């Protein structure tokens, strides 16, 4: 496993991060086995959110920490807030000052901890008051309830709407990226072109993070489209799978490890969030840092997913 220096605390955090979105149907014992197995592979970073399982995922992880004294301190713990789903069938985003303060405290209570290492604003609230959001995040930092903060699924303009008022730095952003879903790279290559790939859908967030030395966390590392399904082994991506399988065989790993290595090859502080609940897949993914991809390898994988270079 390889590690990056994260945020103001300069914590050493694994490049592969275990996402816990799908643990709401698992037992405390099963989740304990999953996270401790990840730790044995060198994965010391956990990502969760208050909306996952409508709070149940955080509660289960809190029970895991309670059942295993000292385990929480071995992990970089990150959660996210700002999405509301109290009413069945209705979702909205709320970055109001009162709600964020209460939601942050609720996260800590469910997790059974006095602080998290990083807290992310989950999806952008168009009605937010940037000064208010910055005040909340600064206040949480000052209180010691969070050690760092960032955003998720937001473009640079939205990020600046908050960051310009904050006294503490925004240190990370989380964005969807995979071999088969890379609109940020599509727009980068197709600048000033007339095709759909030229459309900048994320506002240049990767370049923004490079400029501001922010950590880039990516989610849905094996998905195509918006939860369209896994491209690994899919007959929708025969050429991509052939390339991944060949490179995996050459380096003694699985195609999943190569797919993650492709993400981590971007020249920034990168973390790839994996959402599996299967320990053997966690072990496969942890080997991503053992993979060496040349620049040509990276471009071959990109084009094997159906991308055409201008």
UniProtKB/TrEMBL annotation:
SUPFAM superfamilies: NAD(P)-linked oxidoreductase. Residues 16-303 form the NADP-dependent oxidoreductase domain. It comes from the Bacteria. InterPro entries: AKR, AKR_Detox_Biosynth, NAD(P)_OxRdtase_dom_sf, NADP_OxRdtase_dom. GO terms for cellular component: cytosol. One of its GO terms (molecular function) is oxidoreductase activity. This is Aldo/keto reductase. It comes from Candidatus Olsenella pullistercoris. The lineage of its organism: Bacteria, Bacillati, Actinomycetota, Coriobacteriia, Coriobacteriales.
